[in-house]
Amino acid sequence: MIMGEKRQVYLDYSATTPVKKEVAAAMLPYFTEHFGNPSSLYTFGQEAKTALRTAKEQVAGLVGAQASEIYFTGSGTEADNWAVVGGAMWKRGKGRHVITTEIEHHAVLHSAEYLAKEGFEVTYLPVGADGLVRAEDLKGALREDTTIVSVMFANNEIGTVQPIAELCRIAHDAGALFHTDAVQAAGSLPIDVGALGVDMMSLSAHKIYGPKGVGALYIKKGVNLPTYIHGGAQESGKRAGTENVAGIVGFGKAAELAGQDFETRTKKIAGLRDYLVERVQGEIPDIRINGCLEARLPGNINITFKYIEGEAIMLLLDMAGVSVSTGSACTSASLAPSHVLKAIGVPVDEIHGSIRMTVGDFTVKEDVDYAVDTLKAAVEKLRSISALNGR
């Protein structure tokens, strides 16, 4: 499609990130010589237990929490489930009303659906064309029997960053718990749970250059969620099961690295994203940037290309070595239109013409140029044969 040497360009950092070399190096000894069970009292076990404590301090440091407020899970999805279902169950004596938004990750949406089957009432807040939740909509939805509000910090598809501190204050004024899914935000945005005031926050290692299969839930001191997995005393008796020590160590190291040179790193990523947007807007006609460009994750851009299918674009780009997404990685096998793009008002006949590109720590300007050149050629080719192209 384009002349020149084929290049491998990864532009889907919102789906997952490569494990950094420093993270892999930190993990390796815990597969081999430091393989002990953290619950064992002898030296091998205590070495592993010490490593877990260090990792909790590292993850806590990334979000301004205390180490005792961090609970490791198997994924961000598990953390979302625990927070939403656990929070609702803990406060069900107050009421059975839960509030979330139309654009949440399915880990939250499906948790809300589960609660609805258990007799809870769920309100789904709308968002504007920019993807933002309005404070007045939350105020209008809150009731005396509202127990928990869950609003994601930054959207995984369109990158919109919500006014979490403001929304949290509104929820607390009504006596409700507040949870935020910060899986996409951590490592990309400055986070201080104390300043935000949130009661619970979900995190994931593989979004910040750590390993897959490890997540965490921040639970504010005084919030007493029910035990999530029964069977042992791990995670202060809240989540039983022998810990994934190597994975947790990797999570801790990744969190430590994410906090280093934070402003320089995120500014570089935002600059590359803006350069990508500038080239696409200037060189490819009939497109739409989805979501808010101001309140947005530094590396995220979601674009609709009229008259063609996003999946076809993705496949042509992949043939040329460029990896992008047609939406959330968790729903990439689904033919249903994106619930996020639908919620912000993208016409249904155009939703399938959208792709998400996300820049990360290892992206360079040459990658962006190659990706845009390839994208231009792909769009021109597909539009030339599209029956939808009325031009």
Structure characterization notes:
With 391 residues, the chain is an alpha/beta fold. It has 2 domains: 9-19 and 262-384, Aspartate Aminotransferase, domain 1 (Alpha-Beta Complex); 21-258, Aspartate Aminotransferase, domain 2, CATH 3.40.640.10. It has helices at 21-27, 43-63, 76-90, 106-117, 135-141, 164-173, 193-196, 245-258, 262-283, 310-319, 339-343, 348-351, 365-384, and strands at residues 9-10, 70-73, 97-101, 121-125, 146-150, 177-181, 200-204, 215-219, 287-289, 300-305, 322-323, 354-358. A 7-stranded mixed sheet has the order 2-8-7-6-5-3-4, sandwiched between helices. The protein has a 3-stranded antiparallel sheet with strand order 9-10-12. The chain has a two-stranded parallel ribbon with strand order 1-11. Helix 4 (106-117) links the parallel strand 3 and strand 4 (121-125). The protein starts with 8 loop residues before the first strand and ends in a 7-residue tail after the last helix. The mean pLDDT is 95.
Note the beta-strand portion: 5-15%
What sort of overall outline do the alpha carbons produce when their principal axes are compared?
globular
Percentage of residues assigned to helices? 25-40%
Structural class: alpha/beta
Number of domains: 2
In short:
This protein is an alpha/beta fold and 391 residues long. The protein has helices at residues 21-27, 43-63, 76-90, 106-117, 135-141, 164-173, 193-196, 245-258, 262-283, 310-319, 339-343, 348-351, 365-384, and strands spanning 9-10, 70-73, 97-101, 121-125, 146-150, 177-181, 200-204, 215-219, 287-289, 300-305, 322-323, 354-358.
